[in-house]
What does this fold into?
Amino acid sequence: MLRTRHRRFILFLGDIGTLWAGLVAVLALRYDSETFGELFLLHTIPFGIVFATYILTLYIAGSYDIRATRTTRDLIKIIAIASMISGFIAVLLFYFI
It folds into this structure.
């Protein structure tokens, strides 16, 4: 059985992978393959900041605490609150930058 520390790390890697895969998918669907690399590099820094903020918000909210999120209801509540806070921060970041 995996230790709690290993589970947290796997969750962390899964979250990061999912966020970046989502950005790649959206850019690939929206733009043609000729400009994809250039646009991906253009989006790397702003979305990197947003993704870091989202991961930090999830961590502060306790999403990576295996014992605190034993029930699905608690986990959904934590993720919903963290997503709202992160979304608000992302809107402020893109609005002011």
About this structure: The chain is about 80% helix and 0% strand. Residues 4-30 form the longest helix (27 residues). Residues 23 and 46 are 11 Å apart (CA to CA). The mean pLDDT is 88.
